[in-house]
Automatic annotation (TrEMBL):
One of its GO terms (molecular function) is 3'(2'),5'-bisphosphate nucleotidase activity. This is 3'(2'),5'-bisphosphate nucleotidase. The lineage of its organism: Eukaryota, Fungi, Dikarya, Ascomycota, Pezizomycotina. The keyword Magnesium applies. Coiled coil: none annotated. It comes from Tolypocladium paradoxum. InterPro entries: Inositol_monoP_superfamily (IPR051090), Inositol_monophosphatase-like (IPR000760). Keywords: Hydrolase, Magnesium, Metal-binding. Pfam families: Inositol_P.
Amino acid sequence: MDSPYSRELTIAFSALQNAARLSQSIISAQDKGAIEKADLSPVTVADFAVQALLIATFQDAFPGDRFVGEEDASGLRDNEALLERVWELLQRVGGDGATALPATRELMCDLIDEAGASSPGGDGSGRTWVFDPIDGTKTYVRGELYAINIGLLVDGKQTLGAVGCPNMPMDAAAPLCNADIDPSGEGCIVYAVKGHGAFIRKLRGSADDAPPRRLPRQQAPDALRFVTCVGIVDSALAGVHEAVAARL
């Protein structure tokens, strides 16, 4: 893709590869360190570790940007055993030229908290990265499909998006079920920059090793398939998906 955000995409691809490797390293484990948040949704050691990895990486690459994440570190600060599990998991990812790691446990918690307490902002807010470290924690816990989401807002408007799907096949076709795991184990990344189209590539490998495929533009809104959570406690956003569909 020829766009003014090529460096951002390079950082995103590397971060997603490392985040996928981190999360996949315990996906078969019976105990993923899941705890229940106040909204009754689960969070695992992978959620915390991936968020810390993403924030450390993007803060190192773009120190002037803002960051928003789904999790905060209160559950770690109150549970030393859980904190150690997250720290140990994070150490499995070796830092490379594009990936940074927090230097201490305290810094790890501070990074998670910094993003957890932020909000995207609107006009004049500049660049804000938004992360969902494990999108689909319930299915992740079951060893099914999940995603790692990265978005860039510029003055409150989404400009770039990159979604890592560690166990979804690149040639997946609808309808796709949670249990439709990629038999090759390669996974994929779906990404887009505003005004430059949407693409899909293999999760692993470099851009040269994994050339992207441009996704066709969807011309008929009625052909789009919308999905939403089964229960209100899963999203607490009743009506939002319907409103988006109506605007499209």
